[in-house]
Amino acid sequence: MTGSDQEGDYTLSIFPVHLEDDALFQCQVGAAKGIAPIRSRYATLIVTVPPDPPIILNGEKLHVLEGKIVTLECVSKGGKPAAEITWLDNDNVPIRAGVESIVEDLPDGKRKNTISMLRKQMERSDNHRNITCEAQNIAESVPKRTSIELFVEYPPYVTLHYQPYNLKEGENATFKCSADANPAQVSYRWLINNREVENEHSRTLILSNLNKTMHGSVLKCVVQNRIGRSEETHTISIVYPPVWILRPRDMSAESGEAATLSCLADSYPPPSYSWYRNDDFTTVISRSMNLTVITNENTQGRYTCKVSPPGSSPIQSSAFIMLKGPPHVSGSKVVEVGLDESTDLLCMARGVPVPQNIIWTRQGHLLSNGIRYNIQTSTKEDALHSVLIIKDVKPSDFGVYNCTASNLYGVDYSTVTLQLREDTSLLIPLAAGISGGVFLTLFFLLLGLHYKRAKEKPFKETMSDPDTEWKTDQFPQDKHLLQVQEEEMPLNQPYDPSTSLHPAQSPYTDKFRTIHRSSAALADKFRTMNLNVQDPHYSAVYGNPYLRSSTAIDSGFYHDYSTAGGLSGNNGRNSIGGYTPPLPSGGSGPSNDYSYGDYVGGGGGTMRPAANLVSTEYVIRQDMLGSSLATHV
Prior knowledge:
Blueprint: E1 23-25, E2 28-29, E3 38-39, E4 43-45, E5 55-56, E6 61-65, E7 69-79, E8 84-88, E9 94-95, E10 99-105, E11 112-121, E12 129-136, E13 144-163, E14 167-168, E15 173-182, E16 187-192, E17 195-196, E18 204-207, E19 218-224, E20 229-235, E21 238-246, E22 251-253, E23 258-262, E24 264-268, E25 272-277, E26 290-294, E27 301-308, E28 315-323, E29 325-331, E30 334-337, E31 343-352, E32 358-362, E33 365-366, E34 373-380, E35 383-390, E36 399-407, E37 410-420, H1 427-455, E38 481-484, E39 487-490, H2 519-527, E40 540-541, H3 550-554, H4 557-564, E41 599-601, E42 607-609, E43 618-622, E44 627-631
Parallel strand pairs: 6-13, 14-21, 22-28, 30-37
Antiparallel strand pairs: 1-4, 2-3, 5-7, 7-11, 8-9, 8-12, 10-11, 12-13, 13-15, 15-18, 16-17, 16-19, 19-20, 21-24, 23-26, 25-27, 27-28, 29-31, 31-35, 32-33, 32-36, 34-35, 36-37, 38-39, 40-43, 41-42, 43-44
């Protein structure tokens, strides 16, 4: 205590201050004679004590597994007032979450211990990081600290890389597996679709000659250390061009029905679809895999599905939507062949539905497989194909062949003409010889004419009398004349037995005088004339023995055919020529009013022979209607 009575100053100095000095102090003045004692107010002396350096009870290093929750404890003792503890991470950023503090009084009742607990789940990122505990109270201006280093052990963390970025079919690919692990001693395994790749234990895997069968396969890299195992997977995506899975197919339907075309292709990246009609690729009519069309005459046709994958060339395929109807028959028109050679007559029938059979006929007779005939039928590209093979062609094979097909909706036919191929090997030298001969002949004629004119005397021209009447042969020139033996014979005269070929009564006696002398030759000409019926449903053959002898011609029968111009039906339908002979009663025939050869069919269902005919044949076929009728009289 310092001061004096004279100064009236009594100061209490405490040095050094001890904890025990933390108390209440009062200044008292004792009583004196005539003066009562006095006391001052209490003065409080607060003694602060800095805390001891903090201690982390877990030690300086902590080895812990990833994911485990640990509690770090930091204690600061003897502080007065109690120390405040702060946790700092590796970047000296205060940690607030998971912190709890406890203050304990020491036995002296003045100092205190502070205990702080940090509860934390260990992460891979905490490995090799420091956690700091910092303690401070008002007795110190600089806090005290201590740290602990974390060693977090964890299984491998795997990442998978590959190159090139776009894997294409036929190329090689390199895959690299990177692993972050503690401890760092790891092993590698590779699996494709859960099947281990043999002898591959490095971090790199090379796949050679990629193909689309590997597209979508799952590649897996497995890395393991003593803590655990980790893996990384990758779905292999290989860029490859489109391949058809489902092409559009031809469809047929009746009018008003719906027809659906579908197309599907496999590619990577997945393709887009577009539909076009009748090769008009400027107008897209649909962009889906399926196309539905209401069938009619305007919508039938060719439809094309175009598949366009990104990065690859597009592909396309077409199909037809067809309206059901009768068939269409086509094929060879004219076939030339030499004698004793073989030839093929082609016929094709298209239709919806496709015809089931093709029938070959000739002159009304159904053709079938035999020694020289062979018919081969097959279906190709939704059409029925038929080939009639004729071996060792004979003169009798030449003519018209009928090819007929039918389906539920109708019938169609086509004809093929088989004819002899002309041999032109001698035409060139023959033409050269003829040309040379003609040239020489003209040369000598001109030379002779010139010589003749040189020898003739000049003559006086005489003008004709203008009143003189010039006459010519009045023989009628008709375009419908048959030339026989250099004689002309009218074909448009009606038949009259009383005047036929009679020199005294015929106005053309001089012109027809040689007919009797050439009757045999004329009969030979008519014997080779055949009736050719083009209607595929009917055909007829006929023969008249009286046309094959001179007797028949001389007796007047031949004149009946040469002047009649043919025969016709009683009602004028399906007639051949323009003449209808008288019809005696008797006989029978078809009632369809068709007439062929020597017969005239009546509309009433009778068939009568032509006048003056002694013996005739009649055959009619109705192939396509499935029935036939043959009559012989």
